[in-house]
Amino acid sequence: MFVNFIRTSFQKTFSKTSSRTLLLLLGALFFLPAYFYYLTKRGDDPYGARLREIRLGMEKDGTKTALLDEVGGHVRRKAEFFGGHVGRDEIDAVAEARLKDEALRRLRQEAPDLLPFSFQSAVASFMSKPPVMALFVVFAFPAFIFLVLMANAYVKYTYERLIMTVFVVLGVTFLVFTILYISPMDASYNILGDLATQDQRNEFNAAYGLDKPYLEQLFRAFKGIVTLNPGKSLLGGEDVIVSLANKFPVTLQLTFYSLLLAVIIAVPSGILSALKPYSAADYTVMLLALIGLSIPAFWFGLILILNLSIDHKILPAIFMPGSWQSYIMPAVVMGTGLAASVARMTRSSMLEVIRQDFIMTAKAKGLSSAAVTVRHALGNAMIPVVTVVGIQFGAMMGGATVVEKVFNMPGIGNWLIDKQFIPDTPAVLAGVVYIAIVVSLVNLFVDILYAFLDPRIKMKIKGN
Amino acid sequence: MNNKTFLKRTEARKLKNFSELGALNISWAASLVIALVLLYNNFDKSVMGFYIDKMSFPLGLAYLAAAALSLALALASRAGIKAKDGIAPWVRAAAVLLVPFVLIGNVFSAIAGFMTAKKTKPIEYHLAYFSILNNMMVFVIGSLNLFKPELPENFWLGQGLLALSMAFYAVALVLVSRAADTGRYARLAPLAAILALTAAVGNVFALLLALVVFARIRNEGGRNSIEWVETLRRVFRNYMAILGLLVIVVLLTLSVVSALTFDYRTATSNDYSTLMRAPSMEFPFGTDDLGRCIFTRIVFGARISLIIGMISTAAPFVVGGLLGAAAGFYENRLDNVIMRVMDVFFAVPGTLLTIAIIAAFGANMLNLIIALSISNVPVYARTMRAQVMVTSNSEFVEAARGYGRRPFEILLKHVVPNSMAPMIVRASVSIGIAVLSTSSLSYLGLGVEPKIPEWGNILKIGSKYLETNPYLAIYPGIFIIVLVLAFNFLGDGMRDALDPKLK
To answer: Cα separation of B437 and B297, whole Å?
Structure first.
């Protein structure tokens, strides 16, 4: 029972390229000897031998000729119908494929446990012996834990998504670095000014490693990102990671507050719209939402500053560290666009759910309309809204740039804009890649949350 | 009691069937709001009293008149529908009086007038009067230049051409409506050809009208329904969507015609005798710190916004669409490769990717277009892939496969044309987003070069004088909102028109 459980998990984990490497690494102490065992055993292959026997049998008892005739007839009739012409070898190819299928089918019927011979099947059958399993648990304990974990559908799903995220982050680093590398702009020119001599420029480039070949610089960039040490900025020589750590909380807080504000306003109004579609309230909410989508954030910010800060002096016009009032206007400005899309999404998804059969059933059961809405419709309608919020989070981390500039907040976006004119490669690269990492992690989190929320996706994950 | 609610509902449905009534209602409400705003301008807050402004007072009164006339007609047609299931002929005749209000920029009344004037309204009728309204609006906007001390060189040529084309559209309106009633389109081919020619100024309505007439001629007088004409008809049922389309087409026509009726120098060359003027007849939106007319700058800015918006939507539409179609149709390694690359692009927030690209290659219009296009490609690829995967499973694709068509042929001839609906909807919304991004990036100094009159650039100057001259920042912002809103309304209308569930 236990042996079988581990064996199945091994089969599944091994067949995926993404998890195979890690599995082999974790269990190297066990798999290395197993590989030698496999090399010695490669001579006798029961599966291949049996398959050959079946093929010979089919030739002897006349199945082969019958099949050839049948397939030949099919192919010829098809060609006649479409007015084409078929050659002898085409018929042979089709017949051969049919023969192979037939042989495989017979083999499966005869001995369902027999597997095609490979390292995987050899180890799997080897493992079914309890003493070998004990050895596996002792010598390859990390691999054993890994297999136990991977047997759980959610862990497996999370692991696969995590591996993908790692590749995406590496891809982003490569992409952004390459864009900055092929830039025709010369950082040394922008920093040293046009009076600097060529020697001074060369010296500058050598000091910052900008004269090194592409691959070496790219490798250094990868290393910098992974070890959280992206180096010093070209202008001023500030430590990039320290600056980022200082700026990051401002951007994150701003994003979080606007997200909170947007959800608090948008979800109830979207639900209200959907419960009374085509009413005056619905039209008003949807018109406001559409206007919210169309307002340029920086203009809205300026108008708020004009009205609330300059004319009425209620709120501070520019950011002051440590004062919560400074966050109100930026959060409102950034929340507007998000609230608009969330309200529209809530309405359409709610309308979609309300029209479904299970809502009719709930009503027919005699539930009050409030109970139907809260207990049956709401949860299902929120699923796409969660996705929208997750996707928008990424857009907001980037979009915060404009708002930070308007309100002069010391966030990452504002800092990046100041750095990009040079262009300050280490700073721009680190800023963009770390934000992309945060965005990817949030998307990963949303996807996993989704897997727990949506029974349809749950089924799909478990089915795989 | 049940009987009563039933009757009430039937009546509401009956009223809803008359699009004229809706248009008249919007006409009086919108005119009233605009009239009140204009008349409020005559109210001086500091002394709490009225004074009479040369510009806004007569305009306000005219809008008030339009509101009164629309309200009267709305009440009359409402009574007619309730009593006799139809609008009385005298109401329809009187509605023509609403049309001239377009001369003061009141499109709401003009649309209501045209809509009420005719009982049966084929799509050709709508397209014809929208062609007239469009050129009329551009004519009116150009006429504001009459208050300037000197006119642009080719001003009268431009205005004359517009007037001539309007007269031609009026003739076309009559001929096309008659053809639609009788079903005899055969002799309209030359007319349609000229219509298509006049569309060169950017009048999309005229172009659509020409295309509809050609399609009808090919289809023997409209006996068979044509798929795209039906979709167009459904878009025209949505008032806000066509209003959005009108705004877009007016700005498009304006950006072509402004080459004749506006002077580019007024928008770009400094004039130190007219620094920081407040809005007046000569400078409708005032002047900036270098004495340039904000109104003219906004007119030329529309051209930049539309060009950038359209190119940076068309390029990723094609590239992303092809990648997505390939990924969705050949579900195997190709799909994996394409979508993983798209994931990398998708992981970087659009604004940041744009900033990185502009950081590398410098801030100018071409780089901005490239940057916006690249960050949009994954969105289109995902949309197309999802739709292609659905379409590939339909029966007609199976049939084509069974008939022995090659996969590539099936993809190009059957799958892609039937997967376009979500792409078109996304495109119309994303032009609006591109307009927003362009102005935001210009505001940050990362977009169009500062010397070009782009809306974001105009706003950037305005933001410096927020305390003293707020109008410098307010007007360009309103134009951005109106254009983006127009694209959003059009996008919603297209989505509903293309949605198979709502057909």
So the answer is: 19
Closest CA of chain A from B470, distance in Å: 8
Asked if pLDDT for residue A127 goes beyond 80, the answer is no
pLDDT score recorded for residue B224 = 66
For chain A, report the end-to-end CA distance as a whole number of angstroms.
Answer: 21
B480:A299 CB<8 A: yes
- Tell me the nearest-neighbour CA distance from A89 into chain B, angstroms: 20
Q: Which residues of B touch A167 (CB under 8 A)?
A: 340
Partner-chain residue, chosen from B349, B444, B470, that has the shortest CB–CB distance to A397: B349
Q: Is the pLDDT of residue A159 over 70?
A: yes
Interface touch A290/B350, C-beta < 8 Å: no
* A171 interaction partners in chain B (CB closer than 8 Å): 340-341, 343-344, 347
3-state secondary structure of A219: helix
Q: CB contact, 8 Å: A26 with chain B?
A: no
Closest Cα partner for B435 from B244, B249, B302? B302
DSSP H helices in B85-119: 89-95, 107-117
Domain map of chain A by residue range?
Answer: 2-144, 240-421
Bridge-based pairing of strands B43-44 and B49-50 is antiparallel
User: Which DSSP category does A239 fall into?
Assistant: B
- Please answer whether residues B31 and B109 qualify as being in contact, where contact means their C-beta atoms are separated by less than 8 angstroms: yes
Residue A464 has pLDDT above 60, yes or no: no
d(CA B156, CA B261): 7
Please write down the long-range contacts of B424-430, taking CB distance under 8 Å and 24 or more positions apart. B424/B494, B424/B498, B425/B491, B425/B494, B425/B495, B425/B498, B426/B379, B426/B380, B426/B383, B427/B313, B427/B317, B428/B487, B428/B490, B428/B491, B428/B494, B429/B487, B429/B488, B429/B491, B430/B313, B430/B376, B430/B379
Interface contact flag, B361 A394, Cβ < 8 Å: no
User: What would the CATH number be for the domain defined by A240-421?
Assistant: 1.10.3720.10
Residues of B in contact with A185 (CB under 8 A): 359-362
* Three-class SS state of B50: strand
Domain ranges of chain B: 15-119, 122-262, 274-501
Of A179, A306, A440, Cβ closest to residue B360:
A179
Question: Measured between alpha carbons, how far is residue A280 from residues A277, A288, B218, B248 in Å?
Answer: 9, 12, 44, 27
- Please tell me the distance from the alpha carbon of residue B437 to that of residue B427, in angstroms, as a whole number: 15
Class of domain B274-501: mainly alpha
Token pair belonging to A128:
């079914």
Question: pTM, whole model, 2 decimals?
Answer: 0.87
Average pLDDT over residues A7-20: 79
Mean pLDDT per 10-residue run, chain B (503 residues)? 78 83 92 91 73 82 94 92 86 91 91 91 92 94 89 91 94 90 84 91 93 86 73 90 95 93 85 82 84 91 93 95 91 84 88 87 90 92 91 89 86 89 88 92 88 90 86 90 94 87 63
- Give CA–CA dist A233/A218, Å, rounded: 16
CB B428 within 8 A of CB B490: yes
Q: Which amino acid is at B89?
A: P
- Return d(Cα B315, Cα A73) in angstroms, integer: 50
User: How far apart are the C-alpha atoms of B316 and B345, rounded to whole Å?
Assistant: 13
What pLDDT does A463 receive? 64
- Cβ atoms of A381 and A344 within 8 Å: the answer is no
Q: Does A341 touch chain B (CB under 8 A)?
A: no
Closest to B145 in 3D by CA, of B161, B156, B131: B156
B50 φ, ψ (degrees, to nearest 5): -95, 150
Burial A149-158 (b: 16+ CB within 10 A, else e): ebbeeeebbb
- Which among B21, B43, B23 is positioned nearest to B31, based on CA atoms? B23
Cβ proximity of B80 and B87 under 8 Å = yes
B20-35 pLDDT tens trace: 888 999 999 999 999 9
